[in-house]
Amino acid sequence: MDLNTTPVLERVMPQPGASFLVKHYADPSIRVNKLPNWHYHPELELVYVRGGHGRRHVGSHVSHYRDGELILIGSNLPHWGFTDRFTGNKAETVVQFSTDFPSADFLNLPEMRGVSDLMDRARNGLSFGGLTRTVQGSRLERLIDLDPLSRLLLLIDILQNLAVSQEYESLNADGFHLQIATHGYDRFNDVQQFISENFRDEMSLTEIAKVASMTVPAFCRYFKKVTGKTFVTYLNNFRIVYSCKLLGDEHSTIAEVAYDSGFNSLSQFNRAFKKHTGRTPTEYRSDLRKTIVGLLPD
């Protein structure tokens, strides 16, 4: 199994004297393996990909972008990296900041209401297009060359511009949104690791509760609080998201994808997939291929 299907906690460590982290990759093509690919963190993440085309995989949402991407990802929303050696983009800039950036008191000021609302909307993932992507993405790239104070002020202004922009799409990627207290990451990582290693098999609540060192009733309450879903619903969503990856990346039959994703029958898989995505697996694969063909240069 590809271990990168496990959402891994990423530790975000800003540089000394900074309240947020800025990373710029002038040549993303050399980043052959960005590990962990499938990860989450309590910080929000603003990513600008200049040029190129690739895949968005944010929470339960899977789609493709072309001619670059500007995306804001909410706290604890698992996602894959957006670039690799096949993306063909010119540069990538990543900014990660806390949920109370730049401070809780500052964020509560009336003037920051729009930014505060933006950060709340970002819990489902926001993809920006048009002039917003071009202009604000270009400004985001400037952060790497500025002194700390200028960098802070510019980022706040960029967020304000994103807050008032109408050129965005909500990815509705809340299927895997996590609400984990800081002290609970290790426990949830143990649970998530167990799910990742055993999702193809039948998994009882007694089994998974034991991994968390909890009784079944206590585990059910804990899991619903963290994920917003029952364990059974979350497990099925996990299997569906994994099947989306197989449908997009491999040449397996629909039946093979169903069993490889942990479903006991093709009919069960078809029903669960249609309920989760609004499409049958066959329709999803067909639409995905049309999208990919549309992204290719003429």
UniProtKB/TrEMBL annotation:
One Pfam family in the UniProt entry: HTH_18
PROSITE patterns with a match to the protein in the record: HTH_ARAC_FAMILY_1, HTH_ARAC_FAMILY_2
Domain HTH araC/xylS-type: from-to ranges: 189-287
Record's keyword terms, sorted: DNA-binding, Transcription, Transcription regulation
Top-level taxonomic group: Bacteria
SUPFAM superfamilies cross-referenced by the UniProt entry: Homeodomain-like (SSF46689), RmlC-like cupins (SSF51182)
GO MF: DNA-binding transcription factor activity; sequence-specific DNA binding
Keyword Oxidoreductase among record annotations: no
Protein name per the record: Transcriptional regulator, AraC family
Species of origin: Neolewinella agarilytica
